[in-house]
């Protein structure tokens, strides 16, 4: 079983799902970050602490990265990054902010995803279709 499969199984037992995993370097420190979303409830600090407490000793035995690292378990946040196909599918009906490779920006409601293209209804009513491979960066958007 891979490390990711182990993590997914443990998260399932904790009542949450894996949203994403990333390894980053911040201030000369390697961080292995696990983003979780609630299966039936919202993710809060207590849930993140519970998952960390369960995962930490397991990852000590089978480190997910080489060298010294810090484990972080977090919610992806209200404005969460959209990197994978399942992220886009799970965000249909939500507001999104898209930055295209050509630097254009689109903000609106993600209406659908068909044949690798997003349909976004912008706030002014315009309908924009964007191929996923033209997206540089995407995230859900909360209109403050």
Question: What is the count of distinct domains?
Answer: 2
Structural category is alpha+beta
Number of strands: 8
Helix content: 10-25%
The biggest beta sheet, please? 5 strands, antiparallel
Radius of gyration: 17 Å
Low-confidence stretches: none
Number of helices: 3
- SSE succession: HEEHEHEEEEE
Q: Quick one: CATH class of the largest domain?
A: Alpha Beta
CATH architecture of the largest domain: 2-Layer Sandwich
Tell me the β content: 35-45%
Whole-number average pLDDT? 93
Give an overview of the whole structure.
The chain is of the alpha+beta class. The chain folds into two domains: 3-74, RimP-like superfamily, N-terminal (GMP Synthetase, Chain A, domain 3); 85-140, SH3 type barrels. 24% of the residues lie in helices and 41% in strands. The chain has helices spanning 3-13, 45-61, 85-90, and strands spanning 16-26, 29-38, 70-74, 95-100, 105-114, 117-122, 127-131, 135-140. The strands form two sheets. Strands 7-6-5-4-8 form a five-stranded antiparallel beta sheet, with no helix packed on it. A three-stranded mixed beta sheet has the order 1-2-3. The longest helix has 17 residues, at 45-61. The relative contact order is 0.14. The mean pLDDT is 93.
């Amino acid at each position: 079983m891979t490390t990711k499969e182990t993590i997914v199984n443990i998260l399932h037992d904790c009542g949450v799902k894996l949203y994403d995993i990333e390894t980053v370097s911040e201030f000369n420190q390697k961080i292995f970050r696990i983003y979780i979303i609630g299966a039936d409830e919202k993710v809060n600090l207590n849930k993140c602490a519970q998952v960390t407490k369960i995962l930490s000793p397991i990852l000590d035995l089978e480190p997910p990265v080489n060298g010294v690292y810090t484990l972080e378990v977090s919610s992806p946040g209200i404005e969460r990054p959209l990197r994978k196909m399942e992220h886009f599918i799970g965000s249909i009906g939500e507001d999104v902010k898209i930055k295209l490779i050509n630097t254009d920006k689109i903000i609106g409601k993600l209406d659908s995803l068909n044949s690798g293209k997003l349909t976004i209804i912008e706030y002014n009513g315009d309908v924009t279709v964007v191929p996923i491979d033209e997206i540089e960066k995407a995230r859900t958007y909360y209109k403050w």
